[in-house]
Structures are given as C-alpha cells and as structure tokens.
Design a protein that fits this description.
The chain is mostly helical. It has 7 helices and no strands. Helix 1 packs across helix 2, helix 5 packs antiparallel against helix 6 and helix 6 packs antiparallel against helix 7. The two termini are about 25 Å apart.
Length: about 150
C-alpha cells in the first residue's frame, strides 16, 4: 500500500457515513423493539441502504441481499470475482468510480455515476462501493464483520 497524505474529504465522508449508520442502526433497533420488524438489519445492509439513498435508490431496491492523523486508504482493486459478471467496459468504469470515491470523494463518485444515467453501471458501482466501504469500515473497527 502506498502511503499518502490523508484525504480530508474522504475522512469527513466516512465520519458522516458512520453517523448515518449509527442512526439507522438505532432506528432499526427501536422498530424491532416495537415489533414493527422481525429483526434489525445487518450493518452491511444498513450501509447498502445509506449508499443507495445517496445514489437515489429507494430502500426496497437497496436491501437485497495512534493520533487523529490517518492516511488515505489506497483505492481498492475490486476483486475479479466481484466484477466477473461485468463487461470489460463496465468493469473499467466501476473501478474508476471506486478510485474516485477513495482518492477524492464518495459524493463526487456518486455524482459521476448518476450522471451516466447507466443503470447497469450505477447498480454495479453501488454493489462494489458497498463491499469496499464495508471492508474499510470493518478494518477500522467501525463495523462488525458478518
């Protein structure tokens, strides 16, 4: 992994995601306690919802299945398995959007994905981004691994 300067925008967005996930988790817990749902969603499903909302998807579409200085994570190479169902063209575009999310801004990557108006690209990006952010948050100890 290449050591780079912290990407402040990415870190701010991760902090915001953590807050949104905590709020969703608490809301689901309360709904569970009131008997409105059978069981609270897993953390990865909550993350899928939060990212889906940013992409403009409705909830039912997204629920399918040492000091403060931190370095920016290297953009993950989406594994071949995760992208195996995509055409070569989509695979490259999704990887480019993931790179933008991790190097620049999650919101910028989402805006670029939505601007394409390519639903296959947006869906694939959604899936891969959720997987990569989930891994990142688990590695940071912010989420529990399934």
């Amino acid at each position: 992994m290449t050591i780079s300067e912290p990407n402040q925008q990415f870190e701010k967005e991760i902090e915001q995601l953590e807050k949104e996930l905590a709020a969703k988790k608490e809301a689901a817990k309360q709904r569970y306690e009131r008997g409105e749902i059978e069981e609270p969603l897993y953390e990865k499903e909550n993350l899928r919802d939060v990212i889906g909302e940013k992409l403009g998807k409705s909830s039912h579409e997204t629920v399918q299945d040492d000091d403060n200085q931190q370095q920016s994570p290297e953009p993950p190479e989406a594994s071949g398995d995760a992208l195996s169902y995509l055409s070569n063209e989509l695979r490259g575009e999704v990887q480019e959007l993931v790179n933008i999310a991790f190097e620049e801004s999650i919101d910028d990557a989402i805006k670029k994905a939505n601007a394409t108006e390519n639903s296959a690209l947006i869906d694939a990006f959604h899936d891969i981004l959720v997987d990569e952010l989930y891994k990142h948050l688990v590695d940071r100890g912010k989420l529990n691994e399934l």
